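Reviewer 2 asked us to include a model.

Predict the structure of this chain.
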Amino acid sequence: MLDTFATWLSFDLLGFIPGTRLGEAVHFFLYDTPKVLLLLVSVVFLMGVVHSWISPERTRAWLAGKPLGMGNVMAASLGIVTPFCSCSAVPLFIGFLSAGVPLGVTFSFLIAAPMVNEVALALLFGLFGGKVAALYLGLGLSVAIVAGLVIGRLGLEHHLEDWVRNIQMGAAPDLGENEINWRDRLGHGVAHVKEIVGRVWPWLIAGIAVGAGIHGYVPADLLAGIMGREQWWAVPAAVLLGVPMYSNAAGILPVIQALLGKGAALGTTLAFMMSVIALSAPEMIILRRVLKPTLIAVFAGVVAAGIMLVGFVFNAVL
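Predicted model (structure tokens):
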């Protein structure tokens, strides 16, 4: 329904031409903006309601009781079954942070959600069989878990923006179990939306706008020409090319098919796809409202290293 509305608004009401670069960019923006905003509002509202029962301190204590890495495994597994692009995963990331979930655990989710997705699994299964699809799933899950563990062990919580740290350190309202009704709980959810969404939404829209512009003007032929080579630098080059772009797995699938059709190495193509959907410039714009530059740089570096590892492994074994 949302896609139908965006199509009508872009091409019928506003008069942009389907298939043109500008028309596709406008359609992308009008489709993704309400989708991501609705997701952000829904998740933050839900977390606000949850806060009326469970304090951030209790959440941290529960996760602290898990064996080393178990929280990262749980978060990464959740990310795998949520078919989000990177910008769509950010609202859940913010919600986890606001609930007091440890930083490394939230990053495991943020990495896994867009990196390992059903579209890529279906593509790999259809083209290369179950073993290759399983290898992709295992490598993507491993990258998300290990990257989250590394980020968590570095102790970078002080590189969260102050308003996020204040939410994490603040206790839930002191409301007795029998003293609060559903109206109060829902009101707490609304207040949570005003607090968090009110701070994040301009960055969210800016990030989607950048992604829409790139989406409409992706030089597919140039990409295929560069990535069709199998030199050692092809994988790092693919990651660097993918970072400034933005799409979900379904949106990048036609480009991936074109690259494979032109003879690009599978590992190089996968590295490009994973960098586009898991390490995009629009995502960094949105995350900047939540994370300080140092933490964004650490996140980008760890994820980029993991993606290149996946690319090199696939090129070596296939």
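The CA atoms of residues 44 and 95 lie 6 Å apart. The chain has one domain: 2-317. We have added this to the supplementary material.
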